[in-house]
């Protein structure tokens, strides 16, 4: 590979990774991927009355974990929504 090729590739890499240089200026719009939710909803313990402390504690832990996964998914959806808007703007700028 010649010096010119290396310099051109380095310049393209620097331009493509620069946040000050919009992707549309290089003619590239990257379509965002929608988040997927693989959440396992906790099931209630089979004992309605007289559950052991361990069963109650385990269920509470599962509910807390499920809630945390829902919050993570909500954050992923927010980021996707923002990136989708940027993608639409990028595509409009290319037109």
Task: Give keywords.
disordered N terminus, rod-shaped, 0% strand, 2 helices, mainly alpha, 95 residues
What order do the helices and strands come in, and which of them pair?
Blueprint: H1 3-17, H2 53-94
Taking Cα atoms only, what radius of gyration do you get, to the nearest Å? 24 Å
Low-confidence residue ranges: 1-18
- Give the strand tally: 0
The biggest beta sheet is recorded as: none
**Percentage of residues in DSSP E strands:** under 5%
User: How much helix is in the residues?
Assistant: 55-70%
Count of individual helical segments: 2
Going by helix content, strand content and strand pairing, the class is mainly alpha
| Total number of distinct structural domains | 1
- Please provide the ordered H/E string of secondary-structure elements: HH
- The overall pLDDT, averaged over residues, is 79
Apparent shape: rod-shaped
The protein's oligomeric status is single chain
Distance between the termini: 35 Å
Verbal overview:
The chain has 95 residues and is mainly alpha-helical. The protein has one domain. It is rod-shaped. The two termini are 35 Å apart. The N terminus is likely disordered.
Brief overview, please?
By secondary structure, the protein is an all-alpha fold. 60% of the residues lie in helices and 0% in strands. It has two helices and no strands.
């Amino acid at each position: 590979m010649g010096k010119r090729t290396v310099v051109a590739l380095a310049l393209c890499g620097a331009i493509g990774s620069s946040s000050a240089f919009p992707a549309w200026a290089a003619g590239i719009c990257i379509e965002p991927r929608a988040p997927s939710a693989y959440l396992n909803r906790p099931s209630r313990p089979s004992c309605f009355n007289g559950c052991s402390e361990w069963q109650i504690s385990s269920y509470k832990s599962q509910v807390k974990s499920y809630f945390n996964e829902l919050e993570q998914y909500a954050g992923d959806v927010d980021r996707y929504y923002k990136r989708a808007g940027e993608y639409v703007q990028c595509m409009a700028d290319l037109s």
